[in-house]
Amino acid sequence: MKIKHVLFGLAAAGLAAGASAQAKPEDQIKFRKAGYAFMSWNMGKIKQQVIDNPGSFNKDQVLAAANVIAATANSGMGALYGPGTDKDVGGQKTRVKPEFFQQPDEVRKLALAFIKEANELQKVAATGDAAAIKTQFGKTGESCKACHDKFRKDE
Q: What is the pLDDT of residues 77-89, one digit of tens each?
């Protein structure tokens, strides 16, 4: 099962790489910002139901949000960090630090950790166990934060 996820991720990255080769740097920045914004919104939906207001817990909504997070994590977004996307371009601003482009092994390690946690969040959300979802939500959020702390500029 894990090999399937790795192979799927590599295939998705390859397809996305082909697609990003056709996208201008400013479009790559725009697309990746949109993907992260949509994941953030869905993380917020889960947070609302398992942390902020657990009385509002709705298994189907949490699972739908977890599905989006896992799908986006596995979509090959790494291909949207092509040449020319390391700086603001064409009206699109980026908050990526230059070190992101200089440390591909560290980026890969953090990305794979996020994918792992996002996939686990999806599995746990399918159980409907709010306490387990809350725990896994924290792990998923920490994997996001690890990359932000290392490679994202403050506004």
A: 999 999 999 999 9
